[in-house]
Structures are given as C-alpha cells and as structure tokens.
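Lest this sound abstract, we think one record worth quoting, the chain in one-letter code, the fold tokenised, each line plainly labelled:

>
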Amino acid sequence: ANDAAQAVSDLGRYLRGELAPLTPVREGVGPSRHARWVRRMLGTSIDTAEVYQWARQELVDVVAAQDALAAEVLGTGSRAGDLDAHLRADPSTGMSPEDFPRWAQGVADEAWDAVVGRLLDIPDGLGRPTVLLDTPGGGVHYEEPEPSRSLSGRVLRSFAVGDETVWPWAERTTVLHESVPGHHTHSGAQSLDPSLTLWQRYLGKVPGCNEGWALYAERLAIETGLLSKPADRFGWLAARRWRIVRVLVDLGVHSWLPVPAEIAALPGAGGGTQWDRPTVEAALRAHTVLGEGFLQFEVDKQLGWPAQGLAYVLGERVWLAGRERAQHRAEEVRKKLDLRAFHNRGIALGSVGLDLLTRELG
C-alpha cells in the first residue's frame, strides 16, 4: 500500500511539474490527432464540417419533437422543460434506487419476450440479462457473460450518493439500450459466438459499431411498442438530445470548429467562437437533465476522450442506412425485408469498423 501511494504521488508530481507545462493552452487535441481518434473509435473517417452541420439540425429536430410531445400532453404552448417538470412533480411516480433492479429486470424481461426469436436470435447459453445495482457513483454499463459462462450478461446501474428518486420514464430507454434489444443481444451474443476469435469476442471492440447498435436498438424498442407511453418517448428523446449535443461538443472541442451561434448565446457560454470548458458546460446544461455531479463528469469525459461522443449517433446512422438499403433491395424484387435475418447477419459480423459494417450490410 505504501509503494502504491508513493507511485501515485510520483505520478502526480510528474503530471504537474513536467507534463503540464508542455500541454497546449487550447482545449482539445486538434484536427490532425482528432482524425486518428475518429478512426480508432469509429473505424471510418468523417467529414467533420458535414457532421457538425448535421448534428446542429438534429439537435433542432429533437428539441422540436420534445416540445411537440409536451404540447400533446400538457396543451398548446408547453415546452420540453414544462413536461420534464410535470413528470418530476409527483414523487409517488418514482422509485427508490433500491427498487430499481427489480423494476429494470421486468423491463429487460418484457423486451426479451418481444424481441428474441422475433426480431433476432441469440446463441445457446446466453440467457436473459441480469440487472444489478453497482457501487454509488452514477452511470450504467453492460458486462458480457464470463467466458466460463458462470455469470450471465449483466447490466450494472449506479446512482449518485443522495439520489432518492429514480424516474422510470427517464430510465426505461437506458435499460433497453444496455440489455435487450441493445448490448446484451449484440455484445453479449458475440461473446458466446465460437466463430469469432477471443479478441473479437472480448477485447477488440469498436465503439461506433457497438454503441451504434445499442442506439439503433432503442428505435427497435419504439417499433416494438416497448416505449409506447408519452413519458417513455420523452425519456427517449431526452437521451437522444444528450447524445446529439455530444457530437457538437466533440467536434467543436477536438477538431477546433467554431462555436455555433445558438450555443454561444446560451447562459454561461461566454459568447466566444472557441470551445472551452464553460461553453461545454453551458451546452450540456441546456440540452441534458444531468445532475450537477454527473454533468461535471460528462464535461471531463468529453474534454479528455476524443471521438467517444461520436460513437453513438454516427454508429446508429450506419445501422439505419444499412437497413434502408436492405429494405430498398427487398422492394426491388417485390419482397418484404426479413428484419430478423438482417439483424442476425449484422450481429454475426462481430464488432467491426463502420467502413466494414457499411460494406457488409450492403
């Protein structure tokens, strides 16, 4: 323990005394390094200016969809913030963190019954995912089954200290993202596929492929009726809004693109043309419902992990485009797209770069 403490202390002195003076003043890694990070995280190259403009419009569209849903539920003139406040007004509609695993297990089991054997197939031995509480901190992640199969695929959710009320409408889409039809039926299935190498099954993950599938899976959940209630659809839109603003933050910070006027005008943004920490904070505060502690964690992550924020919606774009092309080919020969076969074929590829995924999905 003493040796470990000394090693951490030495590392801290090195970071402050030797490395920090060499770092650039401007936030972000810059366009050249960012392009390499994009290739690593996505398995493709992107036109940063095109994606930036696309994400700006996507953000406008998702805000409009939230406002329209608020007007549908609360009446003409209501906005997204009004519906968010309305849904949080009655604590009896929430649950405690301790009640979350039982509720979320029910959500995952319902999704399993609706999806497995209908929209996709799973390998023998995978089984239903298990939902568990993780140590306090805030966040959620999926863990594939153990190679020995002694542990099933697991969704681990943690809550920040002090969180007393958990809102089902805000959590449902996340449970589906992590379990079924999300990561469990993609990463979990691949972990038990003997046709893939151990590297492909457990280590060689391409975030753009995996997170793109999980975001695409949220749309499958809507199509299957698993997010049919207005409150649940609002939760899905809120999660999507967060993923889209991440794209703007990542490209702006790390490829040094100018701050859009609508972001610069936000309270706390400062009105400048260069992205900095206050601007990132302002963008995330305006377009997410994250608690302050988790918001600061998210700011740190986006500033320090280039291209991570791109994986979700840009990966989803590839899955959606592949499905659209497959649909078009089926229509050309007057057939109906076999969606189950399409999903099985895509999952069987393993976790691959988006260039390869685009080619193989046709």
